[in-house]
Automatic annotation (TrEMBL), chain A:
GO molecular function: ABC-type transporter activity
Protein name: Transport permease protein
InterPro entries from the UniProt entry: ABC2_TM, ABC2_TM_bact-type, ABC_2_transport, Nod_factor_ABC_transporter
Domain ABC transmembrane type-2: 20-244
UniProt family annotation: Belongs to the ABC-2 integral membrane protein family.
Main location: membrane
Keyword list, A-Z: Antibiotic resistance, Cell membrane, Membrane, Transmembrane, Transmembrane helix, Transport
Compartment(s) where it occurs, according to its Swiss-Prot or TrEMBL record: Cell membrane; Membrane
Transmembrane segments annotated in the record for this chain: 21-41, 53-75, 96-122, 134-157, 164-184, 216-241
UniProtKB/TrEMBL annotation, chain B:
Upper lineage: Bacteria, Bacillati, Actinomycetota, Actinomycetes, Streptosporangiales
Highest taxon in the source lineage: Bacteria
Any one GO biological process: daunorubicin transport
Bilayer topology term: Peripheral membrane protein
Domain ABC transporter: 3-233
Name under which the protein is recorded: ABC-2 type transport system ATP-binding protein
UniProt record similarity statement: Belongs to the ABC transporter superfamily. Drug exporter-1 (DrugE1) (TC 3.A.1.105) family.
Length: 248, 306
């Protein structure tokens, strides 16, 4: 356990020192939120102020960008000599990857707090009981943890950090065909089926319901998706790590 | 014996990198694996340091099998690779403390150990600076320090001085000698004959994945002619004539420079006799020189016909 903490501490320290990359990672979701609220929002009918609608979507988008950073930092480690040192120190795969994932969760939660702060400043007014807030926080934590494990797996799959960031772009695209920014019913029929069923929509709809005091209908499905995606990420990362190390 | 390899083989696809390597390293020795790029040096080190699995054969380090008892081996070794294994964005001290924590030291013990090593490697002043600001020599010193955090029994150093300036190289050599005298077994690879000659108790020559010679520097030099007479011939005709005359006695030929080398005992009588017999008209040989064999000669000889 202390191994994981040491490795997580390292990852957090490295991300704090990434300089421009850190600023970009934090600023990008905020820019996207401002872009949607002020440029597109006026044209999108959601039955209320657009900022009320879009915040959960921005949180998910934020986690998706965060996954790119995580995939890249895992790929970076795999490509560098420091990996040989860590392996020859007998650091377990759990600690190596767990450290990245833990730091990724910390980064994402920090970005989430920042998004909330800016959202409040531009007029986001959630209506939620403390219990709803707690559930919403648990859901976002579960979601970023799942995304982080998937990102770690992508970082192991990619041969270079650049490729990792390219693969992770899929995550940054997935919020668009979901209920994040526009109502699913406005999409073409063939896309509606995907958009309504995909996990991001379950997570976003649940967040929306919890934060805006609407009937919560898909929260169970949202948690099940997070756990399933997280476990898939862990399994894929473990298998890919073994492959990488064997072939190295 | 601290390091024992028997029939160690490794291939990537159809490309054989190591071909039935056998070697033994006595404890406390400095053992140099010498060979050109692509000979299989790094693969050997990675196999012995448990980072790779051999396709066949077996090896043990400090008495433990590198495949079955990987963790036991890892606890007793350290590996310093060709490229500094450090986090550029962490300070020198943070890097060492991290390694110390990963070897199981407490926070306080890790801080103390890092401080000792920084002092020993003359890095105390740079301890709080990020590694990205370090010079090549400083990085290498910090990398060696990181390798010593866990007080290893066996240190693997993969080309520890490649790319270093002469002063930093000297510093690494001194540190290696000091470690060996403290009882640490050193297994190093190098492409510099001078380095092996200077540091190692035993030298193994690796060529295309095979050990082609092994012994002390003196033994290896003795395998080829100890003293050599180098003849510079006047022109191409003279070279051809001399080559024909000397035949099997030639130990090295270099047509581009019109030079031939033959074995000699270095005595005036032998040199005179040889020159008289070869060149009675005194027109063929322009110059001559007598020199001792170097590891270069050994290397060129043993790899020539492989």
């Amino acid at each position: 356990m202390s191994e994981v903490l040491v490795m997580a501490g390292r990852s957090v320290r490295l991300s704090l020192r990434a300089g421009d990359a850190l600023i970009t990672a934090l600023a990008l979701p905020i820019m996207m939120m401002l872009l949607f609220v002020y440029f597109f929002g006026g044209a999108i009918e959601t039955g209320g102020p657009y900022v009320q609608h879009v915040v959960p979507g921005v949180l998910v988008l934020c986690a998706a960008y965060g996954a790119g950073t995580t995939a890249m930092s895992v790929a970076n480690d795999m490509a560098e000599a420091v990996m040989d040192r860590l392996r020859s120190l007998d650091v377990s795969a759990t600690a190596l990857l767990g450290g990245h994932v833990a730091a990724s969760v910390v980064r994402n939660l920090a970005a989430t707090v920042l998004v909330f702060a800016v959202a409040f400043a531009i007029g986001f007014r959630p209506v939620a009981s403390p219990g709803d807030w707690l559930l919403a926080a648990a859901l976002i934590a579960a979601f970023v943890t799942a995304m982080s494990w998937l990102a770690a797996a992508i970082g192991l799959l990619a041969r270079t950090p650049e490729a990792a960031s390219g693969y992770a772009f899929v995550f940054a695209f997935l919020p668009y065909p979901s209920s994040a920014f526009v109502p699913v019913e406005t999409m073409p029929g063939w896309l509606q089926a995907f958009a309504a069923g995909q996990p991001l929509t379950q997570v976003i709809d649940s967040m929306r319901a919890l934060l805006l005091d609407r009937p919560v209908t898909v929260l169970g499905a949202a948690f099940v998706w997070c756990v399933a995606l997280g476990l898939a990420g862990v399994a894929a990362a473990a298998a890919l790590y073994r492959l990488r190390v064997k072939r190295a | 014996m601290t390091v024992v390899a028997e029939g160690l083989s490794k291939a990537y696809g159809r490309h054989t990198v190591l071909d039935h390597l056998d070697l033994t390293v006595p404890s406390g020795a400095i053992y140099a694996l010498l060979g050109p790029n692509g000979a299989g040096k790094t693969t050997t080190v990675r196999l012995l340091a448990t980072l790779l699995r051999p396709d066949s054969g077996r090896a043990s380090v400090a008495g433990f099998d590198v495949v079955d008892a990987r963790s036991e081996v890892r606890r007793r070794i350290s590996l310093t690779g060709q490229h500094a294994a450090l986090d550029e964005q962490q300070t020198g001290e943070e890097n060492l403390r991290m390694v110390a924590r990963l070897t199981g030291l407490s926070r306080a013990a890790a801080r103390e150990r890092a401080g000792q090593l920084l002092e020993r490697f003359a890095l105390t002043d740079a301890a709080g600076r990020r590694v990205k600001t370090y010079s090549g020599g400083m990085r290498r010193r910090l990398d060696l320090a990181a390798g010593l955090v866990g007080e290893p029994e066996v240190m693997f150093l993969d080309e520890p001085t490649t790319g270093l300036d002469p002063r930093s190289r000297q510093a690494v050599w001194e540190e290696v000698a000091r470690l060996a005298s403290a009882g640490v077994t050193i297994f190093l690879t190098t492409q510099y004959l001078e380095e092996a000659d200077r540091l190692a108790d035993r030298i193994a020559l690796l060529h295309r994945g095979r050990l082609v010679a092994e012994g002390t520097a003196a033994e290896l030099k003795h395998r080829v002619a100890g003293e050599r007479l180098e003849l510079t011939l006047a022109d191409a005709d003279a070279y051809e004539h001399a080559e024909l005359m000397l035949g099997g006695r030639i130990v090295r030929r270099d047509p581009a420079r019109s030079t031939l080398e033959v074995a000699t005992d270095g005595s005036g009588a032998h040199v005179r006799e040889l020159l008289d017999a070869l060149d009675p008209g005194r027109t063929l040989v322009e110059r001559f020189a007598v020199r001792s064999s170097t590891l270069d000669d050994v290397f060129l000889e043993v790899t020539a016909d492989v």
